[in-house]
Design brief:
Distance between the termini: 23 Å
Strand order of the largest sheet: 1-2-3-6-7
Bound molecules: zinc ion
Helix content: 25-40%
Number of helices: 3
Shape: globular
Number of strands: 7
Strand content: 25-35%
Length: 172
């Protein structure tokens, strides 16, 4: 089932999410719903608070090559174990901040540990777009958005555009 995605500004996008204590079937269904919502958007990552669920759960799939099988990842309680000193700049966007893009500098490689949907502890190093995406999504679990990395003026400009968009959507 697809969920609607919260648009910034929303207090739920600014909160720190709670760790998942037990993997239940309900949470697995939620993860599947999040993947469906992400692919439908379309997007390459989605965090639970973006659909108003305050749990530490993210989904992502940065495989973009045509004709290649999708590579969905479901991460409960994801944690960055280590990050490289080398950085990378990507033009980022966010499903909660539609049609707004800006360059963000982040560590180029990150080692991430998480619980997969079967409750197994996984650990993997990500680079390229995957590294940027996983950092962006984990930020969501701590109430942080990519625009928080931008200069205040730029951030305010984007926030005002989103407030206007939300007013327009509320009218329809
Ligand atoms: Zn986002």
């Amino acid at each position: 089932m697809k969920h609607s995605i919260l648009i910034h500004p929303d207090p739920r996008l600014k909160k720190v999410c709670a760790s998942v204590a037990d993997l239940s079937d309900k949470l697995r269904v939620l993860a599947d719903d999040m993947l469906e919502t992400m692919y439908g958007a379309p997007g390459i990552g989605l965090a639970a608070p973006q659909i108003g669920v305050m749990d530490r759960l993210i989904v992502l799939d940065c495989e973009k090559e045509e004709g290649v099988a999708p590579k969905p990842l479901v991460m409960f309680n994801p944690e960055i174990i280590s990050s490289s000193d080398e950085t990378n700049v990507y033009e980022e966007g966010c499903l909660s901040i539609p049609d707004q893009y800006a360059e963000v500098t982040r560590p180029r490689d990150v080692e991430v540990q998480w619980l997969d949907r079967d409750g197994n502890l996984q650990r993997q190093t990500f680079d390229g777009l995957w590294a940027t995406c996983v950092q962006h999504e984990i930020d969501h679990l701590d109430g942080k958005l990519f625009i928080d990395y931008l200069k205040p003026l730029k951030r305010q400009m984007i926030t005002r555009k989103m407030q206007k968009l939300k007013r327009e959507l509320a009218r329809d």
